[in-house]
């Protein structure tokens, strides 16, 4: 009995590698954009429904931070290092938060609830035990 062999082809039927890669890249970019939009919508919903303290307990917000240093990094990015406002011996580790290196974060003004849009938006560069470094495209003015 003779077995049939099938050749799998993609794209236009000829298996054109450039076309396959282009289709794959386009689809991945669409999916990443959709994921970013969903995460942004979830963040906005959380901001509107919970206080800053409740968001911190969920691990998605860090309150009462101070800038301890601002330096210039690669490609002219500004790297700001934040830590909790407290005495040095009272500093607590930042490990309980649900975000880390590579995540997009916003710097907001707040009382009990977070107000409006972020003052600054950046990307978490390094997450140390008691300090988080965030890269910004624009200079971030320290607020005291």
Give a quick rundown of the structure.
By secondary structure, the chain is of the alpha+beta class. Helix content is 28%, strand content 28%.
Description:
With 144 residues, this protein is of the alpha+beta class. Helix content is 28%, strand content 28%. The protein is built from 2 helices and 5 strands, in the order H-H-E-E-E-E-E. Strands 1-2-5-4-3 form a 5-stranded antiparallel beta sheet, with no helix packed on it. A hairpin with a 4-residue loop joins strand 4 (114-127) and strand 5.
Defining traits:
five-stranded antiparallel sheet; 144 residues; Elongation Factor Tu (Ef-tu), domain 3; alpha+beta; single chain
Largest beta-sheet details: 5 strands, antiparallel
From the spread of the alpha carbons, the general shape counts as: elongated
Number of strand elements: 5
Task: Identify the CATH architecture of the largest domain.
Answer: Beta Barrel
Q: Strands across the major sheet, in which order? A: 1-2-5-4-3
**Which oligomeric state applies?**
single chain
Using the CA coordinates, give the radius of gyration: 22 Å
Order of helical and strand elements: HHEEEEE
CATH class of the largest domain: Mainly Beta
- Provide the domain count: 2
Poorly predicted regions: none
For the termini, the CA-CA separation is 83 Å
Strand content: 25-35%
């Amino acid at each position: 009995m003779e077995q049939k062999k099938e050749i799998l082809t993609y794209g236009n039927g000829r298996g054109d590698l450039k076309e396959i890669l282009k289709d794959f890249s386009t689809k991945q970019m669409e999916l990443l954009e959709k994921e970013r939009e969903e995460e942004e919508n979830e963040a906005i919903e959380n901001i509107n429904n919970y206080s800053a303290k409740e968001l911190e307990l969920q691990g998605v917000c860090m309150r009462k931070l101070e800038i301890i240093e601002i330096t210039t990094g690669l490609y002219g990015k500004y790297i700001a290092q934040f830590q909790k406002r407290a005495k040095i011996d009272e500093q607590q580790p930042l490990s309980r938060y649900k975000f880390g290196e590579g995540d997009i974060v916003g710097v907001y003004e707040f009382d009990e609830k977070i107000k409006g849009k972020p003052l600054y938006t950046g990307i978490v560069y390094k997450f140390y035990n008691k300090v988080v470094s965030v890269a910004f495209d624009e200079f971030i003015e320290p607020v005291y």
